[in-house]
Design brief:
297 residues; alpha+beta; Beta-Lactamase; 4 domains; 4-stranded antiparallel sheet
Length: 297
């Protein structure tokens, strides 16, 4: 049982800026982010929760003090000790909560937009000004942001289109480390076969409409091609001054491989009839739009 509890808390305490305490029903500390306090129930000191936060476990549950959160683990670990996880923001972390809450809300909203989930409209609503609700929102979003960081490629650019921030998911799919990408032009990720006109059109729409959504053809550091379905939006500071761009994407490389197999003849490698019809339709539309001649041979 002690091994299971230790493993659980070792996973939880990697969340930066949180003081975490695993206590039993008598408020004795079994495990915490302070190493000297671990398994204090079985030591002569018998370190208790009240020594750390000024409340016993019953007082926390009955009075619900601001900035202190509890999670009942007795169902997950039914050992009869009534285990509860108690969490609170650390002193240094509290000063950053407002900014992190706003950033986490923006990233979550953009990610849900890429995944076409209607909930994005609700998530993007202005965070509450109430400090207690902001802290709860920050705590919940911190958990989801950790998952997003590993699985949803995100890149932040300045007005010069240079990369100023990227997450672990983008590094994983591109093969670059963060230090190799930060400071580089966004074009460093683009495949050399990506048409220049597509890049120009993307930036034109971003300039005129403040957002762009489409597919990006990229090349990893090892030379492997990969595709991203991306949503790029303009970012602003608190004074509504434009600061750069935020790109949130999803990996569609497997989807593009399947599309390629369905468009070409397996024996000759040439486009099949369906692809040719699609290209003809595109050219007819282009001819109608720009009034240029179209010749089919």
């Amino acid at each position: 049982m002690n091994i299971d509890a230790s493993h659980l808390l070792n996973i939880l305490i990697v969340q930066n800026g949180l003081d975490l305490f695993l206590v039993d029903k008598n408020s004795y500390t079994l495990f915490s982010s302070g190493i000297h306090q671990q398994w204090a129930q079985y030591l002569a000191t018998r370190h208790a929760l009240k020594n750390d936060i000024g409340f016993t476990l019953d007082e926390v549950k009955n009075t619900n003090p601001p900035s202190i959160f509890t999670f009942d683990l007795s169902g997950l670990i039914p050992n009869g000790e009534g285990l509860t996880l108690v969490a609170r923001p650390s002193a240094t972390y509290s000063a950053q909560l407002q900014r992190e809450a706003l950033l986490a809300a923006l990233i979550t909203a953009l990610t849900l937009s890429v995944l076409s989930i209607p909930l994005a409209v609700v998530t993007a609503c202005k965070p509450s000004k109430d400090a207690h609700r902001v802290m709860k929102l920050s705590f919940q979003n911190q958990m989801s942001t950790a998952i997003i960081d590993r699985h949803v490629p995100i890149v932040e650019l300045n007005l010069s289109r240079q990369i100023v921030r990227c997450n672990d998911a983008m590094c994983s799919i591109s093969g670059y480390c963060k230090t190799s990408l930060i400071g580089k032009d966004f074009n460093v990720l683009f495949h050399e076969n990506k048409p220049q006109k597509d890049i120009i059109e993307m930036w034109r729409k971003l300039t005129e409409q403040n957002h762009w959504q489409g597919e990006l053809f990229n090349k990893s550091r090892e030379g492997e091609a990969f595709w991203l379905s991306a949503y790029i939006t303009t970012t602003y500071d608190s004074d509504n001054i434009k600061t750069g761009y935020l790109c949130v994407a999803s990996d569609i490389s497997d989807k593009k491989k399947i599309e390629g197999l369905s468009e070409r003849d397996l024996l000759t490698g040439l486009y099949n009839r369906n692809k040719i019809n699609q290209l003809l339709h595109q050219e007819v539309q282009r001819t109608s739009r720009y009034g240029v001649p179209f010749v089919y041979c």
